[in-house]
UniProtKB/TrEMBL annotation:
Belongs to the TRAFAC class myosin-kinesin ATPase superfamily. Kinesin family. It comes from the Eukaryota. It comes from Echinops telfairi. This is Kinesin-like protein KIF19. It is found in: Cytoplasm, Cytoskeleton. Residues 22-359 form the Kinesin motor domain. ATP binds at residues 115-122. The lineage of its organism: Eukaryota, Metazoa, Chordata, Craniata, Vertebrata. Transmembrane segments: none annotated. The gene is LOC101662889.
Length: 391
């Protein structure tokens, strides 16, 4: 039976307004790949309505078509769920587009692509020439918005591109500069000492620098035989603005945008890594864990269970301290493959992303889950009806 895609029962339950949220956690399920189809994988992650995903344990009895054994079927709720039908534009518009306005109002914004290697992070962020991703779409909208307000305001835009590999920061626009350190300036905001900051006036120029920087990324194959990124790639775009005719030397507003293609989240043990790979895995896990903790703490901030946010646990979270706290908006897009062969890493990814936000929607989850199962039975009942009519 096919899942209830956007059935009326599930649709009316979704009413979150992304613009008001300080933190949004989205999930993107990519299409099954040819390689996965060839190895006989079946889809086990199903989007239900706009906000839920059901993950089936492929260890279940395949003969059990009515799925009477549901004990190992897991449901997760996110602010938005995208499946293989979602276009790059759909994903951009529902997650990141609203950040542009904030950046021009002097807010910081961060977009993360999270998930195991091969799950679609780079596709979402960078995309293809014909299907550009979040980097280009965000930058294009940002420059467009500046153009539209250029009668009253002067802008200056600059970019940096860096990677964090094994808790060390490298400048991807100037790799020969070695390891860079984080410093706190007199106002307590975090700076990367010696990083290249390029002034730029259009999105295309940033994309060219990004492509050039990508060739410098630390990227090596692991035992799973996929090219996996072992480093976090951080694109930092700073927008400074002045009122037209203002004599001030200091910018009136500074908005900073971070767009981060995180290192693959697969666990070191799963890739059977040893030695150097093992150490990388430990560093990656540590920074992703620190990130999850910080985001979780932020999502609690507005609630009653406010807690101390420890940014110091990793380079990644230290660097993003200003962007994650205070006047900022954060979007995390978690990625999974729908394939039965990736069950375990999909499960851990969903758990991580779900916990990051800790969405308090138990009631909604139960309602969505019930409507999902009703839809499954409706399918079975109609199939039986058709059988009967044929007799
Ligand atoms: P990651 O960066 O997480 O390691 P990639 O973005 O490189 O993964 O995706 C792995 C492969 O799957 C690439 O060939 C990519 O083009 C393809 N892919 C990922 N997401 C999608 C999608 N939503 N639609 C079509 N192809 C996708
Ligand atoms: Mg990638």
């Amino acid at each position: 039976p096919s899942p209830a895609r956007g059935s009326p029962a599930t649709r009316e339950l979704t009413a979150t307004e992304p613009k008001d949220q300080q933190l949004m956690v989205a999930l993107r399920i990519r299409p099954l790949s040819d390689a996965e189809l060839e190895e006989g994988a079946t889809p086990i992650a199903h989007k239900v309505g706009d906000q839920m995903v059901v993950l089936m344990d492929p260890g279940e009895d395949p003969e059990d078509t009515l799925r009477t054994h549901r004990s190992r079927e897991k449901t997760f709720i996110f602010d938005t769920v995208f499946d293989q039908h979602a276009s790059q534009e759909d994903v951009y518009c529902a997650t990141t587009q609203h950040l542009v306005e904030g950046i021009l109002s002097g807010y910081n914004a961060t977009v993360f692509a999270y998930g195991p290697s091969g799950a679609g992070k780079t596709y979402t962020m960078l995309g293809l020439d014909a299907e550009p991703g979040i980097y280009l779409r965000t930058l294009a909208d940002l420059f467009q918005a500046m153009e539209e307000t250029s009668d009253n305001m002067d802008y200056s835009v600059s970019m940096s591109y860096l990677e964090i590999y094994n808790e060390v920061i490298r400048d991807l626009l100037n790799p020969s500069s070695g390891f860079l350190e984080l410093r706190e300036d007199s106002r307590g905001s975090i700076q990367i000492a010696g990083i290249t900051e390029v002034s730029t006036s259009n999105a295309q120029e940033i994309m060219q620098l990004l492509t050039k920087g990508n060739r410098q990324r630390t990227q090596e194959p692991t035992a799973t035989n996929r090219t996996s990124s072992r480093s976090h790639a951080v694109l930092q775009v700073t927008v400074r603005q002045w009122s037209r005719g203002s004599e001030l030397a200091e910018a009136v507003r500074v908005g900073r945008l971070f767009m981060v293609d995180l290192a693959g989240s697969e666990r070191a043990s799963q890739t059977q890594n040893q030695g150097k790979r093992m150490k990388e895995g430990a560093h990656i896990n540590r920074s992703l864990l620190a990130l999850g903790n910080c985001i979780n703490a932020l999502s609690e901030k507005s609630g009653s269970r406010a807690q101390y946010v420890n940014f110091r646990d990793s380079k990644l979270t230290r660097l993003l301290k200003d962007a994650l706290g205070g006047n900022s908006r954060t979007v995390m897009i978690a990625h999974i493959s729908p394939a039965s062969t990736h069950f375990e890493e999909s499960r851990t990814t969903l758990l991580y992303a779900y916990r990051a936000k800790n969405i308090k929607t138990r009631v909604k989850r139960n309602l969505l889950s019930v409507s999902y199962h009703i839809a499954q039975y409706t399918d079975v009942i109609s199939a039986l009806r058709r059988e009967i009519e044929r007799l």
